[in-house]
Every structure is written in C-alpha cells, then in structure tokens.
Amino acid sequence: MGRMFKAILVLLLAAVLGTLGYAYFGEMTADPVEIRSPVALPDLAPAPAVTPAPAAPAAASPAPQAPAQPAPATEAAGAGLTIDRRLLLALTLGLWPAPPALAEAPMSAIDWLSTSVSGVPLRPGGGSVAVLPPVAGEAPVSGAGMVERIGVASLDSARNADSLGLLPASRLGLPRGLWGATPEVDLAAALRKERLDTLPAVQGFLLELMLAELDPPITPAPEGQNVLFLARIDRLLDLGALDQAMALLEQAEPSDPEIFRRRFDVALLLGEEDHACEIMEKTPAVAPSYPARIFCLARRSKWDAAMLTLGTGRALGQIDSETALLLERFLDDEGADGATDLPPPARPTPLSFRLMEAIGQPMATTTLPVAFAHSDLRANAGWKTQIEAAERLSRMGVLDPNQLLGLYTQDRASASGGVWDRVSLVSQLDAALSASDVARVEQVLPAAWDLMQAQELETAFAAMFAPRLLDLPLTGAARRLALRLALLTGGFETVVQTRPDAAAEEPLLSALARGDTAPVEAQDLLGLTVKRVFDAPPAAVPEAYAGLVPDRLGEALLAAVDDISEGAKGDARRLESGLTLLRKAGFESLARRTALQLIILERRG
Asked: Which of 237, 5, 286, 247 is closest to 118 using CA atoms?
C-alpha cells in the first residue's frame, strides 16, 4: 500500500472520528450523527483520602460489556446511526497491519508513569495534519505545503510551581530561602535519591520538605520548567503519599505536560477514573496520548469513537502492540469470551493497571510500587489484602495508624500465621486495654511488639497504643516496653517529665529525651556516638557540610539525611555528622527523636 494512499485513509479515519462524537475532546458542540451504544460503562466510585476510619470506597466498575445482540448497521433516515462495535473494531484495526513495537522510552525518575501525553495533535484539522512514518523503499515526501504545528499555552503556564506547597515554612521551622544557591537540577537529583529504608523520623522530615512552601532556588534549571516541583511530586509518589501529591498538583498549572500526566496517574491510582478523564477534558492545551484518549472515550460511553481512535493510533504507530491488545480486550470483552488471559504488562502503569482490572484480570499490588497499594484499600479487596496494603503504606508513614488499627480489629482472624497472627495479637491487646485488664496486657504486649517489630511497624504500633499503655500500672518487662513505645511518639519529652522512674529504667533514652546525655554512660558504640552529639551544644558545622552552610542549607540537610541513613548501618562518623548538623540547624527535636529511634528500633540496614 502506497504511502500516499495510507495518508488518505488516515485522513478519512480522522474525518469519521470527528463525525462520530470525537468532539468530546474538541471544540465541536454538536454531533452530526447520533451514536447509540447499547451498553453504558458503569462509573467507578472515587476512593476517599486516607482517614482513620477503616471503611474503604466502593468497588471498581467491571470491564465494559458488549451488547448481547449486534445492532443493525444502519437505520431509517432521521433515526440516527448505530454501529456494531465488534464490526467497527475489526474494520478499523483491519485497515493496517499491526506496527512494530515502539522503542521503549527512557526510564523516568518514576518509571511507572503512564504515557498519557502525546506529541501527536489532539485531532486532525484546525491547522494540524497527521505525519506518517517513512515507508521503506519509497522516496521521502516533501514537506512543502504542510502546516507547521503551532504550540498554544496559557499565559499562566509560565508561573513557576517550585514555590507551591501545603505547609508554611514557618510552621516547620524552615527558612523560606532554604534552597538558597544550590542549582535547581542538583536539588532535583538529590530529592530523587532512594531513601525508602530510612528511619521513620527522617522519612517524616523528608515528607515535610516535599510539602513545604519554599522560595525557588536562586539558580533555576537551564532547561525545562518546574524541575524541582516535579522532583518533589515524584518523591511523594515514591512514598505512596498520593493524597498529598494530588493536593500539590491541583495547585499547579495543568498545561505543563509533566504535571498533567502525574495528575492523571494519581487520579487513576486513587480510583478516581472519572476525575482523571475530567482533568483531560479540562486541559485542552495538552494533547493526551491515544491510549489515554481511548480509555476516557470509553468512560464516557463513546464506544465507536474509542474504537476508531484505536485503529487510527495503531495505524500511526502511536500504540505499541501490548497496549493495543489490552485496549482491544477492554473495548470488546464479548469477543474475548473463551480466549486466554492476557499476560500482565511488562511494565505496569496506572492506566494499564486499571485496564487490566476492567477486563477482569486485576493485578496483585504486592510486587508493584507502593503507590499502587492504595487500590487495595477499597471495599472490593479482601480483608487480608486491605491489611497488607495498609501495612505497606504505614511503613512509609503516609497512612493514619488508626486506619491500620481499624483493619486489624475489624473481625476475628480466620487463620493463623503471617498477617493473621498480627491481627489476632493486636486485637487481643486492644480488647485488654479497653477492659483495663493489666494481667492480659502484660501477657500479650511483648508478643505483639515482636511481630510488629519484625514488619518494621513499630512507630505505627506505638501511635496506636502508647498513650493507653502509660495509663496502666504495668510491671516488669511490659512496663519497660510501654516506656520505649512512648519514647517513639512525638511526645517523648513529656513522657520523661511525667515518669520519674524513667531515668532508672532507661538511663540513656531518658537523658536523650531530655536533651542532656552528659551525666549517663554509654554501653556500646552507638551510645558513644549519641553522647558525642548530645553531651554539649554543637560548636561548629561539621566539616562535611562546611561549604554548604548557610547559603545551601537545604542541600546540606539532604546530605545529612543521607549520612544518618548510611550511618545507621554502622558508619559512626557519618551518623555523628548528620545528627550534629540537625542540631546546629535548629532541628533539635528531630535530632533527638532520630537518635531515640536508632536505639529503640535497632535498625542496622
């Protein structure tokens, strides 16, 4: 088939798309032809933000259902036009042989983001034309007469998003000029470093940095826009902090393609498919990719337009073979009756994840990035699945501990081993505390702690039970454990002030909580390191950060976080430097809480 003939066919397809309701994404206000889809796709109920309540949002909608009987191809004049979906799909896909798989794009910082933004124009016409790839053996076609594509952007899009935030800098004890003279690209690279296995106190500090309202760096990125803002968003996605990420993204100008694709994906991960498509509809300055367009056309029950778009996308080489098969199944599951299941995507994205769910092949999230775990908090997920997802998010510090407690105590454990042992012991401890049964608490508490410690859920466990444990007259090992749990909470300083016997039970921990370790002796290398940091006020900035403070304080703090995380694995010099800088920079409470966690949690990498 000649290249010119292909071009004509593509333009004909484009014209049909405009006639068949493709105006949903354009400026047309009326469809010249009525499209009747026998089946409407049920709406997906959006998942709510994480709350202390254990209840989860409604289940996702099933895969789209094809009509039981094919509709006639045409009707009487004036009665509109109904197109058989399976016939239309076969016709549109049959026009072209399947293109070779697209070359894999470079891995982004968040390599699971959907390719929801395309450089291909939204629809042919209006000054844009489709450009076909060259055909082997044919001479290149001259570009004479081709209309150059013109980019259109909102005047507001120039506004830099780097200064956006959810938390005032003053509330966090941060100077607004924290980033100072550090080049924006260097900060973005530092923020994107993997620190998912660090201490909870440090993780919480990083989360606050991502949400803080700070002035942009003095030296902006030489290329691109919102580089630091996108790095902050990607860090939030790494942590699974989807609600916070969406709140930030909604403040930014959506016409930036990279901001758009993150908003689209976060909405999908939160189970808000209709909101994701609404974002697309309200962002005309960004051209969505073919798969994203097809998904949203189907969500709006524009089946025929979705099928034609699929055929056009394949013809133009804009849809890889794996995605094309998934979209075919999504649009025509009746034709897939009796067919073998599709293999899971090689690199799942939020869009492919939702498409797999819609065709009745939901993917397990346990091996996917933690952001996907939000999907398992919904009511249609099994109880065990919900608990495991809540535990993953709790380890990242982005789920309210009360929500995890609500899931643990929702019902009786139906089996033993693994998660069921945690359900059983946490429920028993909760019941014993509610009944003020001291003997039972002393019996259950150590076993429950051991199980939660093995899952690195100690700080969530402390938040659940520490205040209630302090109210009971416990003795022995249970009393000492209750004190340690209380020292893992944000009220550690108050605990030692109200417990006169704390110094005798835990000398170093109590001294550290008070901020005066000089009078106590260390029992090991970690204790000696902690004493060197806290025995006296820091005299000077540690040598490792001397060239960064004060003009590049934010960069120095990020380096200190790295040093603390690595120092916890046994590098006493780096640990001492990192903790000392936190104190010198005015983060005394953070430094103490971090040191308390180092000792109590026994994290050694």
From this structure: 286
Distance CA 512, CA 595 (A): 8
Position 125 pLDDT exceeds 60: no
Q: Judge contact between 85 and 66, C-beta under 8 A.
A: yes
User: Which of 222, 301, 391 lies closest to 64 in space, CA to CA?
Assistant: 301
What is the rounded end-to-end Cα distance, in angstroms, of the chain?
61
User: Burial, 437: exposed, middle or buried (Cβ in 10 Å; 0-12, 13-18, 19+)?
Assistant: middle
Could you tell me the two tokens for 59? 């289940």
Q: Determine the Cα–Cα distance for residues 115 and 102; give it in Å rounded to an integer.
A: 12
Which element (helix H / strand E) includes 168?
strand 167-168
**Per-residue tokens: 444:** 């259950």
How many Cβ atoms sit within 10 Å of the Cβ of residue 200? 23
570: left (phi over 0), alpha (psi -120 to 50) or beta: left
Contacts with 139 (C-beta within 8 Å, 6 or more apart), sequence order = none
Rounded Cα–Cα distance for residues 492 and 429 (Å): 22
Task: Tell me how far apart the alpha carbons of residues 424 and 409 are, in angstroms, rounded to a whole number.
Answer: 8
Q: Are 231 and 109 in contact (CB under 8 A)?
A: yes
User: pLDDT tens for residues 213-251?
Assistant: 999 999 999 887 899 999 999 999 999 999 999 999 999
Assign residue 182 a region (left: φ > 0; alpha: ψ between -120 and 50; beta: otherwise): beta
What does the alpha-carbon distance between residue 462 and residue 468 come to, in Å, rounded to a whole number? 10
- Residues paired with 432 in a beta bridge: none
pLDDT at residue 500, rounded to an integer: 82
**Dihedral class, residue 156 (left if φ above 0, else alpha if ψ from -120 to 50, else beta):** alpha
Q: Are 440 and 455 in contact (CB under 8 A)?
A: no
Give alpha helix (H) positions in 287-418. Answer: 290-299, 303-315, 321-331, 350-358, 383-395, 401-408
Domains of the chain, by residue range, sit at 1-98+108-129+253-336+344-380, 382-480, 490-605
CB 463 within 8 A of CB 447: no
CA of 67: how far to CAs of 16, 331, 334, 335, in Å? 22, 11, 8, 11
What beta strand segments (E) does 191-346 contain? 212-213
Fill in the DSSP letter of residue 521: P
List Cβ neighbours of 69 (8 Å cut-off, separation of 6 or more).
none
Residue 550 preceded by cis peptide, ω within 30: yes
What are the counts of helices (DSSP H) followed by strands (DSSP E) for the chain?
26, 2
Maximum distance among all alpha carbons in the chain? 96
Give strand pairing partners of 168.
Answer: 213
Query: What pLDDT, on a 0 to 100 scale, did the predictor assign at position 335?
Result: 62
Cα(225)–Cα(231) distance, integer angstroms: 11
Q: How confident is the model at residue 77 (pLDDT cuts 50, 70, 90)?
A: very low
Closest by Cα among 465, 437, 269 to 368 = 269
* pLDDT bucket at 194, cuts 50 / 70 / 90: low
When mean pLDDT is compared across 125-139, 154-168, 414-428, 561-575, the lowest value belongs to: 125-139
pTM of the prediction?
0.78
Give the dihedral sign, CA 535/538/544/545: positive
Amino acid at the residue 575: L
